[in-house]
Amino acid sequence: MSGNTFGNLFAVTNFGESHGPAIGCVIDGCPPGMALTEADIQHDLDRRRPGTSRHVTQRNEPDAVEILSGVYEGKTTGTPIALLIRNADQRSKDYQNIAQSFRPGHADYTYWHKFGIRDPRGGGRSSARLTAPTVAAGAVAKKWLAEKYGLVFRGCMTQIGDIVIPFESWDHVPNNPFFAPVADVAALEDYMDSLRKAGDSCGAKIRVTATGMPVGLGEPLYDKLDADIAFAMMGLNAVKGVEIGAGFASVAQRGSLHGDSLSPQGFKSNNAGGVLGGISTGQDLEVAIAIKPTSSIITPRESIDTAGQSTEVVTKGRHDPCVGIRATPIVEALLALVVMEHALRQRAQNADVKQDVPPIRASFL
Amino acid sequence: MSGNTFGNLFAVTNFGESHGPAIGCVIDGCPPGMALTEADIQHDLDRRRPGTSRHVTQRNEPDAVEILSGVYEGKTTGTPIALLIRNADQRSKDYQNIAQSFRPGHADYTYWHKFGIRDPRGGGRSSARLTAPTVAAGAVAKKWLAEKYGLVFRGCMTQIGDIVIPFESWDHVPNNPFFAPVADVAALEDYMDSLRKAGDSCGAKIRVTATGMPVGLGEPLYDKLDADIAFAMMGLNAVKGVEIGAGFASVAQRGSLHGDSLSPQGFKSNNAGGVLGGISTGQDLEVAIAIKPTSSIITPRESIDTAGQSTEVVTKGRHDPCVGIRATPIVEALLALVVMEHALRQRAQNADVKQDVPPIRASFL
Amino acid sequence: MSGNTFGNLFAVTNFGESHGPAIGCVIDGCPPGMALTEADIQHDLDRRRPGTSRHVTQRNEPDAVEILSGVYEGKTTGTPIALLIRNADQRSKDYQNIAQSFRPGHADYTYWHKFGIRDPRGGGRSSARLTAPTVAAGAVAKKWLAEKYGLVFRGCMTQIGDIVIPFESWDHVPNNPFFAPVADVAALEDYMDSLRKAGDSCGAKIRVTATGMPVGLGEPLYDKLDADIAFAMMGLNAVKGVEIGAGFASVAQRGSLHGDSLSPQGFKSNNAGGVLGGISTGQDLEVAIAIKPTSSIITPRESIDTAGQSTEVVTKGRHDPCVGIRATPIVEALLALVVMEHALRQRAQNADVKQDVPPIRASFL
Amino acid sequence: MSGNTFGNLFAVTNFGESHGPAIGCVIDGCPPGMALTEADIQHDLDRRRPGTSRHVTQRNEPDAVEILSGVYEGKTTGTPIALLIRNADQRSKDYQNIAQSFRPGHADYTYWHKFGIRDPRGGGRSSARLTAPTVAAGAVAKKWLAEKYGLVFRGCMTQIGDIVIPFESWDHVPNNPFFAPVADVAALEDYMDSLRKAGDSCGAKIRVTATGMPVGLGEPLYDKLDADIAFAMMGLNAVKGVEIGAGFASVAQRGSLHGDSLSPQGFKSNNAGGVLGGISTGQDLEVAIAIKPTSSIITPRESIDTAGQSTEVVTKGRHDPCVGIRATPIVEALLALVVMEHALRQRAQNADVKQDVPPIRASFL
């Protein structure tokens, strides 16, 4: 419970710093007998990898993962799977100027007061680089859930800065650096180019879904499926808001509209976002998150130093002008980790439950 | 970890059903030596209590709490504090008609598939009545945090249905049944009266804050303070969205605006909502949540029964037309439970940390 | 994790003090759909109940259990089962003389230093009375394991003071107040009578077994089945030693003798005590524990008071001259709780594992 | 909670297999600001290392540890400390003959039934090699506890096979390969030489202590200090029994003897072994464990294969003829991990407790 482990039955313990020798994680609780190779994990790591377009940080990290344990003759053994990613392209001297001052919007100030010591190189432990092990663990969960339930996790960007991105098709998502569900991203590219020239940054809104959900995942009272989703998403660097289903729009809805009707063929809408009473309905999970603008910008900012005196901070180094651009594979991974945890938990306590009437799924989504 | 315990070091285990003999909780981990009586807890229970205005359910529950353990000669002993609330005003026959069908927007369908059995009386375990033990536990946390750090938790309603409620003053909040921070709630009353006549329901938006926060609470990587806040809030019945600080508005903000500047006198804004890198900054925690419209309405709804056949559901019984109206004391309690957990955790691992420069607080909030 | 919860998937949270208003527990994680009434639990509580022979404390407690939640129409619902036992026969004034001094062998001194406050009435939280909720929870686990796997838990006394008790038959155990597996307990009664006259107390050795174990329960590396058994047993009041299988005798055994051979018909011995590599073999679990002599004796003892000054302590009140006499139902319950936890855990992670060759069992035990 | 993490506030997650690429652990919860280098850890690893005398396995492993994270400029940062040990001297072909049969006394049979798959090379996950990461983590805990409280952990062998080893002095322990507290180990060497010639193995009894304990560590009801010690010790490979203080001898003791008297100068004996009511008394922790004889012997044993047919097993490879010989540094590490966990936990909940009268310590031990 010391803060760096995600989940209980499928427990992912994350370690490392941005400019330390390595980052990685240990996955404890993966069921045995599943085929697993480094390639299964590398695919999602590559989707998250920096340096793949001009719109993201130019740090060049291969993010090559090594499986250290838990796999024998190509199959998981039910014992811990340790994953190691060596850091390759640190430029720690970029951070000397901020070692004694606090960047606005960053964790510098809070780490310093909490721990009394902080590794300033690349943000140390608070760097978004630490999402790589999460993505790696998520890839393992995704594979198991796909094989077991046919579950599919998909995410896309729905807004960047003040540009709302319409949903055209999931097919477009892999074809542009924004994970945008549109064919033409020229407007997005122009927007990012102008932002970069201005030395500024912007936020983004990301949608993430799970299709093929079993009914019954989630534990009332407190450990609800949506509670754990909110925990996972808000725990991601830079996230400031989480919505399930209709989200904040539900405030102004009437009950006669919001409550999703049921028919023998399925639910007739999905304002619930796939969760009722904290338990999955079998409909798609529908989650949206707000990501704040990157705090590392070259625009000078007013701040203080570790002596409490006024100073001005300019953040150099290599940074994403919109951390939301690379967020999609990460939020897919986080959603997969939450579902995995609850899938195993459901087997523990309710493995004997059988209903005569099979679950219904939404027909229209 | 079986779903009904909130927290680890300050662990609240909740039990009971809406129409069972009793509800309650066991608090494990309250530090010893704090003065505690039933009156300390009853105050917040009374704020949440049903039947106190025409705008909420008319179920008449005294919600009288009994301390069963953990207190000796008026002081906490460091051992578990068991709190018991007997149910007094059940009308279980109101629910006979829905025992075999699933109310849209309710947990009926998911409980039935998850557990293979459900207590339909008053929603059973999924009833909002189970927030009473949470409020009781929160009152204990609030008291300790107030005595130890001077922490104050406050909440208010900021929107009901499509009526946005401006913030006038915290002083108004206790003076109206909506927990609205305005002097004149006539418009809100009219709105609720017309809604009730229409047999419909609406949602609400609630704001909750903590003032007097210590710096340094929250555990990166995963168990961030804001992650745990999101977990707590999204785990509350009917919540569909959670925001910290600028929330979804941060998507369209520029980094040069969003990142809160620091000066020797304090932070100059609070877009962060009091959390950076998952750790408290010392500024006020600022949280907002979206509550969906009540699902229990007398308007007939299309649904299915446990045989999978079409049916129509009309929900009688006594219900809140807007569950958000009574939500404020609950979200205060939840925020207090999260802060309490992290306050204890901080002592465990970082008790020796001392900085020469004292933490700064926001001067303007 | 705050010390008063046993288990994770089948989590039992215990509350109460010896002379407070009530004791009890909340069981979180019991699978749904099992028939359960108070009578199912009362049976084991009655086996542990004080006042049933002249050899145990004369405190008269009916220990009547009330189910407060988690059961609907006679079946478990998968939600928390709260169990309440009101204290009935407190004589708190017996303890006024020890409120300011520390009884040797008791938890008085350590509670006082740990918590800075202690409830001296009947030992408060450290009283063996708090094993009653454990027994109640164990009864629920036993019932589920019996129905699901045909598991049977049995315990007996194998030594009291310096009298070693031979094993004649399980059939004798319910027929005497010692839970001794012998037909004739006259020697034991004489021994206890003389001890009582001497104002002294003695220890006991208890054996507890589980028959009908599934193969595969237990989690390497740390959360081994035998590790959790040792945790459970050593956590019981007054226990000073735990053995699995051959126990301390294995030190002097040769490897060629100790390692239990396997044949197609089963294991040929059970030095392992039913656990290899932390995982159940399918053989009977065989556990032995040492219980120290009761610390509450009327013989005057040298001690100190809360001011650190020398004093003499005589413990009046009503006490068991050998706490081991009533220990058997408790250790059965503890073993059942450990097995229950691992049975659920096994379903979570290894539900898909199937071997062509069925497990073998020991044929001779 | 998936089995491979030890502790909560000081959580050690262990990974790796005997013949995989690497073993290691992640320590989450180490307080920040402590000086730490690889040399601090290597010392205890070297004490446990194989190949250092003719009485232990001849596998040659340098067990060189690499710190991957959590340390910055030579100090702990409060973030996870990942420790990596590459395996260097595997001879996996030694194990081909046992891949399809089950060695008596080994975890082969139980792993195969639990997981449906097992890594037979060197015992895979069930190998005693996996105690190396535990020793490494224990070295970190030892260092913190030594600096903070002056705590010292010491262990020694007290029996090997049927030879009881008298206690002469702690000073002798580092001077012989048995960790025996005697000056002359010729008899032990002769015993082991004859055993090795016979192709057999033997057990051992180990004592481990902690000196300088603070009063007040341990959580009643269930998570008692002695319960966690028993969990830790019984969870170690090959352990079949655990005693605290007087252990099994307390069965035949009278209460008037067993209960340790207190005087203003300290406790007058230590039958309690440093724990009363599950909480440390400030006296030395006194723990003894029984280790079974090594199961890997070259004497042919009767067994079955994975088809359930009779077979004979001869275990070749390089093995310790008495696994107890190298156990001492491991049990010291385990005891340190338990104390560390409870030391942090005590700070969380009882940091404000102060007693006017300082704790007493035993004067004579």
Automatic annotation (TrEMBL), chains A, B, C, D:
EC code: 4.2.3.5
Recorded name of the encoding gene: aroC
Function in brief: This reaction introduces a second double bond into the aromatic ring system.
Named cofactor requirement(s): FMNH2
Listed Gene3D superfamilies: Chorismate synthase AroC (3.60.150.10)
Organism classification: Bacteria, Pseudomonadati, Pseudomonadota, Betaproteobacteria, Burkholderiales
Record's protein name: Chorismate synthase
Alphabetical list of Pfam families matching this protein: Chorismate_synt (PF01264)
Alphabetized UniProt keyword annotations: Amino-acid biosynthesis, Aromatic amino acid biosynthesis, FAD, Flavoprotein, FMN, Lyase, NADP
InterPro entries given in the database record: Chorismate_synth, Chorismate_synth_AroC_sf, Chorismate_synthase_CS
Binding residues for FMN: 125-127, 237-238, 277, 292-296, 318
The species this protein was found in: Rhodoferax koreensis
Enzyme class of the recorded protein, top EC level: lyase
Sites where the protein binds NADP(+): 48, 54
